[in-house]
Amino acid sequence: MGSMEMENLHDSYKYSGFWIRMVATLIDSVLMMLITMPLLYSIYGASYFDSAGAFLGVPDLLISYVFPISVTILFWVYKSATPGKMAMKLKVVDAKTGTPPSIQQSIIRYVGYFIAFIPLFLGVIWIAWDRKKQGWHDKMAGTVVIRAQNNLVEDVDFSEA
């Protein structure tokens, strides 16, 4: 990306803060549950939800772990956002170039979530204090989450008749 394009990107986007990202995560979580829970129920029945085991077999491993990880990484790489981030008009981009994250960055970002969660979610809450609104997972992967400066919503102006 040329310097002029980077300047235009800087002028039209801003870093996304903690709360809007939290809403996007909640949307993603609900959508993922709407897909995975019926599948798990159809395979294991209601007993699945009463089970104390970490996983109940290969279908559970694929549906509960492999599918969500794969889908999330693919959305980051090909759309620069998960459905929740798209709904909130957010994008995950490379912190240096503003381009979609690579597969490597996306994998590091996903693994980074677990590291960010370990010390009482401090690595995620860090977004609230960071200058670029990066969580530890973003810092590890070299990504930032951005949103349109304007968001296509006009400022309120009561002076016009």
- In one word, what is the shape? globular
Strand order of the largest sheet: 1-3-2
Tell me about the biggest sheet? 3 strands, antiparallel
Tally of extended strands? 3
Mean pLDDT: 89
User: Are there runs of 5+ residues with pLDDT below 50, and where?
Assistant: none
Residues in helix, %: 55-70%
Q: Any idea what the radius of gyration is?
A: 19 Å
Assign the structural class, choosing from mainly alpha, mainly beta, alpha/beta, alpha+beta, or little secondary structure.
Answer: mainly alpha
Calculate the terminal CA-CA distance, rounded to whole Å. Answer: 44 Å
In terms of DSSP E residues, the strand content is 5-15%
Number of helices: 7
**Strand and helix order:** HEHHHEHHHE
Description of the structure:
The protein is mainly alpha-helical and 161 residues long. It has 7 helices and 3 strands. It has a 3-stranded antiparallel β-sheet. The longest helix has 27 residues, at 18-44. The radius of gyration is 19 Å and the shape is globular. It starts with a helix and ends in a 13-residue tail after the last strand. The relative contact order is 0.16. The model has no long low-confidence stretch (mean pLDDT 89).
